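worker-3 :: picked HAD family phosphatase
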Amino acid sequence: MTSTVPASLFRTNGSSALQAVFLDMDGTLVDTEGFWWDAEVEVFADLGHRLDEAWRDIVVGGPMTRSAGYLIESTGADITVAELTVLLNEKFERRIERGVPLMPGAERLLAELSRHSIPTALVSASHRRIIDKVLHSLGRDRFALTVAGDEVVRTKPHPEPYLTAAQGVGADPVLCAVIEDTATGVAAAEAAGCRVVAVPSVAPIAASPGRVVVRSLEEVDVPFLRTLITGI
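worker-3 :: tokens ->
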């Protein structure tokens, strides 16, 4: 976990306003979910196995260990989760070395959050080595804090990553908004008590109390996020 701003700067005693915004990375801010699937397909092809396209919705957005374990079990590949994780990260890194495409509205939203001085954290199931490479495209200075999947004991769908982010910026999770693209990430954010904006990337996500579903980050701005918290 990396932080660039003292958490004490973000404490707002007695306030019911938006205190922080936490964003997922792959599929939410950067268009890389397809990169991960391509890496998985290529690695298993090298191992002599073909992945079923239907498995894509199952592994999307999940922690590396869960996705790797599922694909090993489904294919019967003779490889350990630890070995597969190394291969997948290497394949993915090669795909992002020349930069990654941002999702529509991502650049504008990050700039707006910065202008309004709203504490913003990147919370991803990806490993630190991957996040650090993607930050070259996103802009490291856009985030007060970044939380990687290999820096927490339990990653998404467990709430620990979002609780860690809230603690890191000194915010109440109930007064934080989370933007996620997968059911796994949404489950983690909601379990942490945060308000959620779902921007589905691969699999659909249904709206529910405390959760808003939008088609694109282009529909999200600071007034919209503040309304999630105040209800006004």
